[in-house]
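Lecture 7, part B: from sequences to assemblies.

Below are the input chains for today's worked example.
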Amino acid sequence: MLHSQLPWWIGGPALGLCVIAMRWLMNLRLGVMGAWSDVVTTIGARRLSFGPFGWMLFGLIAGAAAFALIAGGPDFHGYGWLTDTFTGTGGTVLIVAILFACGVLIGLGTKIAGGCTSGNGLSGNAMLSPASLVATMTFFATGIVVSVITEALIS
Amino acid sequence: MSTRIAAAIIGVVFGVVLSWSGMTSPDIIREGLLFKSPYLFEFFAAAMFTAVAGLAILRKRAPKALLTGERVQWETIKPERRHVVGSLLFGVGWGISGACPGPIATQLGQGIVWGVPTTVGLILGVILFGRMQARAAQGAASGTSSSAATVIPSPVAADATA
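Predicted structure of the full complex, as structure tokens:
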């Protein structure tokens, strides 16, 4: 059962309910980047007193680990178009460098924009915040353009 | 129940859903962004409309938060340059890696080693932002404005949860 993709009309609303729960229980805006940020800045200050966001990140990681354990492994192998395109030892080194650079862009970009796919895309839009709508349209458009360009380059 | 335990439980649900829906996989994200599969957009729209409906009810009723007792309410934010600039950078990283902060966490949880370099980069990005913010605050205090000041929110103005 875990090997078949959850229908979008179950998975989507389940994430939406997480956003509602975070707001109704503790008046917080659910955002995974905010969760990463809490963990990084708390550890950076040499403390271990994580707030709700930090604990949400630990839950997220634990939930994924539980899924992999029950499903008998991760739900995909290789790493998409990157491992299909770049092979061998040189390819692996290149992919690690690419993913590292992407990580920096994702971390820095979402911090500057005040949210990621969940913080701006789900929660911010649900809060009817105009800034989140602008951010969401920007990252979706950019993601689409970048995917189309990279797809054209490798084919 | 403490807010930390509640947030951890919400995180577990979020992590299972991101894993079970395949959102952890860069292939699923890419198929969506290339319009080869409608799943990403259907999933995102279903999540958003559920949240829109739920938050609309919460906003209208403005109940006390169940765990903290404070009034459930929020401010909306006007679009600024930083929302575009930041999301452009994020979009490039998302389009190439097929990962965003949630799926990066679930990749780690599932034991997918490719998630490690992305995580290291993400952490560095957060640290870099903190430095830029400190510098922008310093510049503002000494009266010298820099171009960075227009996209780096000051610690006070930054969205509290991002």
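Note for the exam: The mean pLDDT of chain B is 92. Keep this in mind when comparing with the next example.
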